[in-house]
Amino acid sequence: VEEGPDIETDFNNFTALNFPKNHPARELQDTFFLNARDEQGERKVLRTHTSPVQVRTMLKQKPPIRMICMGRTFRKDSDATHTPMFHQIEGLVIDESTHFGHMKWCLEEFCKAFFEVDDVKMRFRASHFPFTEPSMEVDIDAAAIGKPGRWLEILGSGMVHPKVIAMCGLDPEKYQGWAFGMGLDRITMLKYGIPDLRDMFSADMRWLRHYGF
Fold first, then answer.
1. CA-CA-CA-CA torsion sign (42, 34, 29, 85)
2. What is the full per-residue pLDDT of the chain (213 aa) written as tens digits?
3. Which of 29, 34, 91, 116 could serve as 68's disulfide partner, Cβ 3.0–4.6 Å?
């Protein structure tokens, strides 16, 4: 289990994760920038995901790496399914022989445990993230929460991009890996049928008692 700071450098939050300079995530409408600057003169940010913890882990450890992290993240977004501060959980595996099948098994086991079911139908849809290639969005059959026939998107995943491995000081010709990340608040909404994410931060005791938290 690894941790990282809420305030991150541009390198850890964007550059090391293969975000190009003109990527929309680097714009003011998406990211909270601070006046403080890092050693390269780039403005520091409130981390937009927990992926910088993956970077920090690869920079300080030699493979094999088996890592999971949880923490607060921040983006300029606010509606029924988005809040300016939310929580993510993600995992990373780096070694010489791991592959996509290992990741699929790991995510299936997680979903069965989290939704407390013996079996769960999942589908992996091709997607794009700067830090993974190939990248996959993962959906589950909502039968896991008593709503069969609907697909629910729960997380993003993929094989770690060779550029990310190299940026973190490892040899992409020797090492490969996979990673996944999900919104902890979002999957909690799915499990308990919570309609509005903002209610989680309202400090309403009636709401807490209703859901049994």
1. positive
2. 999 999 999 999 999 999 988 877 777 778 999 998 988 888 899 999 999 999 999 999 999 999 999 999 999 887 877 889 999 999 999 999 999 999 999 999 999 999 999 998 999 999 999 999 999 999 998 887 778 888 888 999 999 999 999 999 999 999 999 999 999 998 998 888 888 888 888 889 999 899 887
3. 91
- Quick count: other Cβ atoms within 10 Å of Cβ 99? 12
pTM of the model: 0.90
Return d(Cα 100, Cα 157) in angstroms, integer.
Answer: 10
